[in-house]
Amino acid sequence: MDKTILITAQESGERIDALLARQEDIRSRSAAAKLLEAGLVTRRGTPLRKNYRTAAGEVYTVTVPQAAPAAALAQDIPLDVVYEDGDVIVVNKPRGLVVHPAPGHPDGTLVNALLAHCGDSLSGVGGELRPGIVHRIDKDTSGLIIAAKNDRAHEALSAQLKDRSLSRVYDAVCHGGFHDDAGTVDAPIGRDPRNRQRMAVTDKNSRPAVTHWQVLGRYARHTYIRCHLETGRTHQIRVHMAYTGHPLLGDTVYGGRRDKGLESQCLHARGLRFIHPATGEPIELWTDLPDWFREVLDKLGPPL
Q: What homologous superfamily does CATH list for 164-304?
């Protein structure tokens, strides 16, 4: 829903996030900040930053997303469970499955499936729409994702994610050939200043991001790589590979073109390592490449 706001003389000079927080359908500074960070508040088509100062006579357009449901519902959706005990569950998520409910995806998500599978034994730390969720992967990325079954496990796994002892490994196919066999991309990621719907390597309002990569296979026009995440920023591998000039095969957001026969970016969360929150023992899990990923490799032709 779009709404327009005309700034009066009394409101002139006020920060935009404070002004938005008083709107009936926004009501809080945090909700206003989220709208601004998502690029949903504009003046003459240009997204505004949260510290923007208003001026009398200016007109702003605010796109307020449809409200998400108050709580997720249990739904009987098949799950490929790789590991499960009383504290954690690890699922091999298929491509196309959204992780948690959000505007545009009110149900049919991984969270809905977990609620049906686990019953009441999911952590409440993530809130009613994200129970048990410790980290996320994109809708069109397949692979391993871990969820906590109780608050103690959730807090321990979140701490591991923060101190980088929870390790995640991804396989991907990129455009072009890499000169080296391995390397590291150390470049901060934040909202793209030119398009708030995307992420980008930028020094403005960004956070450190580090991706280690190694070549697994070389093809005529593409390279099969493995990425180890040192940090976990939104779209990190997709942004970093595009930044190096090697966008992921099938990535229309960061690759700039659609690859025939491929519905999404060629990215699979292959491995996961964490310290068990109850026993303190290290657990390392791997999953096979999905059929769609293998078909992509086969279509690339013989390796070089």
A: Pseudouridine synthase (3.30.2350.10)
Same fold, 69-160 and 164-304: yes
Identity of residue 298: D
pTM of the full structure: 0.77
Which CATH number describes the domain made up of 2-63? 3.10.290.10
Instruction: Show pLDDT as tens, one digit a residue, over the chain (304 residues).
Output: 788 899 988 889 999 998 888 886 776 787 888 899 989 999 998 999 989 999 999 999 998 776 555 578 899 999 999 999 999 999 999 999 999 887 777 889 999 999 999 988 888 877 766 788 999 899 999 999 999 999 999 999 999 999 999 999 999 999 999 999 999 999 999 988 888 778 999 998 899 999 999 999 999 999 999 999 999 999 999 999 999 999 999 998 998 677 767 778 999 999 999 999 999 999 999 999 999 999 999 999 899 9
Q: Which of 138, 171, 251, 259 is catalytic?
A: 138
> Is 203 noted as a catalytic residue in this protein?
no
SS3 126: coil
The CATH number of the structural domain formed by 69-160 is: 3.30.2350.10
Of 160, 268, 159, nearest to 224 (Cα)? 268
Alpha helices in the chain (DSSP H): 16-21, 29-37, 110-118, 151-163, 236-243, 291-299
